[in-house]
Design a protein that fits this description.
The chain has a domain of 96 residues. Strand 3 and strand 4 form a beta hairpin. The protein has four helices and seven strands, in the order H-E-H-E-E-E-H-E-H-E-E. By secondary structure, it is of the alpha+beta class.
Length: 147
């Protein structure tokens, strides 16, 4: 369980670091802390940080469980001294903001409901076991063989 927690935390942090690098290369100038405020699993101090907007090269300031301010470049970042109660298993996200983009893209929803995908009929997807009744014997130059 401990190994899974460490792996999950490190993979998410690496993913967020890559996202930060891509956003910087794409010209984003600001970033916003996004916590899942509707979940009872989200830390209370991360819910308070929700919506915080800073320059892309500045850290977020998030309090830890004792109320001390800690700096994080991205959720889960420990490079500036943030403790485990701010980094381990953090599920928060970052929204990157470019100056020329003021709103999220318009929805492509046409108002029609999509039909659910049909599952294949399982009766026809199974392979029948091969038996001698399914085979045909042919006489070849080296003797009989099965098809």
């Amino acid at each position: 369980m401990r190994a899974q927690r460490i792996a999950r935390t490190e993979v998410l942090t690496a993913n967020r670091r890559g996202g930060l690098r891509i956003a910087q290369d794409a010209g984003a100038q600001k970033k916003q802390w996004m916590a899942n405020v509707g979940s009872n699993r989200t830390r209370a101090w991360h819910k308070k940080a929700n919506g915080q907007i800073v320059s892309i090269d500045q850290p977020f300031v998030v309090r830890n469980c004792q109320g001390a301010e800690q700096k994080l470049m991205i959720p889960g970042d420990y490079s500036m001294g943030a403790t485990g109660d701010n980094t381990i298993n953090c599920r928060c996200a970052v929204r990157y903001i470019k100056p020329e983009v003021t709103q999220p893209p318009a929805s492509t929803n046409t108002g029609r409901r999509r039909r659910p995908r049909r599952r294949p009929d399982r009766r026809h997807s199974r392979l029948e076991p091969f038996t001698r009744a399914h085979s045909t014997t042919h006489q070849g130059p080296g003797g009989p063989f099965l098809f």
